[in-house]
Write a structure and sequence with these properties.
The chain has about 170 residues and is mainly α. The protein has 6 helices and no strands.
Amino acid sequence: MNQPIPVGRPPRFIMTIFLAGAAAGVLDITAAFVTSSLHGYTPLKVLQGIASGALGSKSFEGGWSSGFLGILIHFLIAFSAAAVFYIASRKIVWMRHRPVSSGVLYGVAVYLFMYWIVVPLSAIGWQKYSIDSTIRAIVIHVVCVGLPISFIVRHFANHPVVSSNRSLPRRHAS
């Protein structure tokens, strides 16, 4: 049975993906700002670094324009990661029932996809990674991406929406 969607309220799956992607995006970029600041980089340089995947080294000459592109790319990736998890969790039920294990595994999967596929295929290309930076990046992806996405998807999957469109009792023919 299809229920009408109330006017002004986006469908539940869109809200779930939006909230999960926003949470992961904010937590991940905050972690990037904090860890990069320890090495002397400003938030603008971090954002330009993200944009350099599309623009190459010219990104670092683009000021806040390339920084803005970097934040757009970052959140596009975060929302995409949330959407992929959401769609997979509709087919693989344990992802909704085991948010810690699915979140940890998904965080590692997102790390592997980003650092072994996306970055090498971007204008950045292959990077040299140290054990320390790899472990840090995996932990950040687990804590700031995988776990928030899995817990938010689980929350919305396990709490049904109460509809304000209550149907009137049917009259039975006598």
